[in-house]
Design goal:
CATH class: Alpha Beta
Oligomer: single chain
Bound molecules: pyridoxal-5'-phosphate
CATH architecture: Alpha-Beta Barrel
Number of strands: 8
CATH topology: TIM Barrel
Largest sheet: 8 strands, parallel
Distance between the termini: 15 Å
Helix content: 25-40%
Order of helices and strands: HEHEHEEHEHEHEHEH
Strand content: 15-25%
CATH superfamily: Alanine racemase
Number of helices: 8
Length: 218
């Protein structure tokens, strides 16, 4: 089942996005046991993402070599679990978090790759910078020592209003395209199990997929 699910998603994204860019699949592995994660890696999954800092820390030593992302809500007191381990911290959602990642990266003598999270639907229950403030936030983060901003990340609102969702994807992509040449952006992380087929047609080049690959039983 795991292989079939994984190959289905890999095949869906194999043609790249609507901009002709290759798409990176990040397996969202919260609650997924390490032996299952490692099986997925052996079957061709190159990137995984955890969304709880403790789980990230506990699994890190036993997960097979891969690009190990952090995709969850960040508490400043748990940033220490990520520094020097996360290949990409996707969910950087405030100035305080940028400051702390920078401070700890300097003291560990590593560079931390990050994406800045955009609260694209301006939702109360989601973290992130607004689209209006993301240019200023990117300028700020890119000046911080030992922090490298590689792009933007967002989560679409839970809605079946497709034209609205498309307009959100398109405005995020327009902002990404504006900042990309200035900061040498590489990733626009947008799309999960329920919406990646839409987001990759509207500018996303990185998707985070959990339940469709691993099932929802975990
Ligand atoms: C769990 C999770 C996903 C994947 O969600 P699915 O609907 O299971 O594909 C994507 N992004 C984040 C931040 C997550 O926590």
């Amino acid at each position: 089942m795991l292989n079939k699910n994984l190959q289905k998603v890999l095949s869906d994204i194999s043609g790249g996005n609507n901009k002709g860019e290759p798409i990176t699949l990040v397996g969202a592995t919260k609650f997924v046991p390490v032996d299952v994660i490692n099986e997925a890696i052996s079957l061709g999954l190159t990137d995984i993402g955890e969304n709880k800092a403790q789980e990230f820390r506990d699994k890190f030593p036993i997960v097979s070599p891969c690009n190990y992302h952090f995709i969850g809500t960040i508490q400043t007191n748990k940033i220490k679990y990520l520094i020097g381990k996360a290949s990409l911290i996707e969910s950087v959602s405030s100035y305080a978090i940028i400051d702390e990642i920078s401070r700890q990266s300097v003291s560990a003598n590593v560079t931390s790759n990050v994406l800045l999270q955009v609260n694209i639907g301006n939702e109360e229950n989601k973290h992130g910078f607004s689209l209006e403030e993301i240019s200023v936030a990117t300028a700020y983060a890119s000046k911080m020592p030992n922090v490298k901003v590689l792009g933007l990340m967002a989560m679409l609102p839970d809605s079946d209003n497709e034209p609205y969702l498309i307009s959100l994807c398109e405005s995020l992509r327009a902002k990404y395209d504006e900042l990309k040449p200035i900061y040498d952006f590489k990733h626009l992380s947008l799309g999960m199990s329920g919406d990646y087929l839409l987001t990759i047609k509207h500018g996303s080049n990185m998707i985070r997929v959990g339940s469709l690959i691993f099932g929802s039983r975990y």
